[in-house]
Known about the structure:
Layout: H1 26-47, H2 51-100
Amino acid sequence: ENPNRVAGKMKKVKDIDVHAKVELSRREREEIQRQRDATNYRKMHEAGRTDEAMRDMARLAIIRQQREEQAKKREAEKKAKETAQTAAREKQLEQQKNSMR
């Protein structure tokens, strides 16, 4: 047998203190702190107060601006194409009118 082993003592129900404060182990305290830190960081990130969130917002602003410029460019090209088609139709109609005379 192991001479260093301490035999567990039996406790009576009336001797057990239900309201005694339980001491957490170092690992348990660190895990709880890690969870608190992660939750706090997530809340700060959602609020836009972290460096990463600020970089993301700046990147998104640039992307939005680029997309807006591209949309304007596409719209202008579309209008130019429609104008050219309309002008070509009108020219064709005029040629037909002139040839009928």
